[in-house]
Structures are given as structure tokens and as C-alpha cells.
Amino acid sequence: MHASAQRISGFRHIVKVRQHRLNSDEPIGAGGDDTAPSPQELLAASLATCTAVTMEMYAQRKGWELRDVEVECEFVPGERGCPAKFALILRLPSDLTDEQVARLQVIATKCSVHRTLDGEVMFSERVERTALAY
Fold first, then answer.
1. In the beta sheet, which residues pair with residue 90?
2. For residue range 2-54, what is the model confidence (pLDDT) as tens digits?
3. Between 8 and which of 12, 59, 91, 130 could a Cys-Cys bridge form, CB atoms 3.0 to 4.6 Å apart?
């Protein structure tokens, strides 16, 4: 997978993923113009979306009617000495059995974003210098 972010102005960036484009910005209180979600909000959105899709795919394979699914994600970024905290609320149809709900709750933790955030992460960085545009 590949994504890039290119500055538009201030802290606003255009994010490119395959043929898709979306914007990211910082809230006014953080020096941005609040024209789009912040990068950290996009992280919470990624976890919420991946969780919902993972449950929906599982339900589809099981032949379960799973409509009106909503996943809410609260995210508190980590700080020195304190880990990042994610709280998910899974809103599921009331006509599911207790067994279906329990199974979906387990499956929700198996989404790829959840596993990535829960696992060990490694980073590598490199710098490429570009010519100034005049």
C-alpha cells in the first residue's frame, strides 16, 4: 500500500491513495484552517471503517443480514509514558442473536487496522532533496 501527502497551504495537504484524493488539515486551535479532518482523525476513521467492513464481510460470508452497522471510534493520542487509547462502540441491529453479537465482537478485533495498531510497528525514513520551484 502507498499513500502520499503534498502541501496545499498552511497545514492543509492533499492525500493521494491510488486514484483517490482527499484532504487533511489541522484544527484552528492547532494552527490549521480546519478545512478537513486532521491526520489523527483520519487514523480514527480508518479504524472505525476497517472494523465495520470486517464485520460486514464476515456476516455476508455467514449469510447474516447485517444492516445499519455503525462503528464509533474515540481516539486519545499517546503521550510520553502513556499509550494511545482507542475506544470503539459497535452499533449492531437489535435482531441479531447474542451468539452473533459475540462473534462479531471478536471479529471486529481482527480488522487489519486494529491488528496493525495492536502489533509491533517499525518505521524507516529517508530524505530526498528536491529542487526549489520558482
1. 71
2. 999 999 999 999 999 999 999 999 999 999 999 999 999 999 999 999 999 99
3. 12
DSSP state of 95: T
Instruction: Please report, as a single letter, which amino acid is at residue 27.
Output: P
Check the CA dihedral 131-19-109-37 and report its sign. Answer: positive
**CA neighbor of 72 nearest in space, from 56, 55, 86:** 86
Q: Which residue type is seen at 101?
A: V
116 vs 114: CA distance, rounded Å: 5
**Which one, of 93, 108, 116, lies nearest residue 53 by Cα?**
108
Per-residue DSSP letters for 64-103?
----S-EEEEEEE--BTTB--EEEEEEE--TTS-HHHHHH
> What is d(CA 65, CA 96) in angstroms, rounded to the nearest whole number?
9
Place of cell 480546519: 34
- Other C-beta atoms within 10 Å of 52: how many? 21
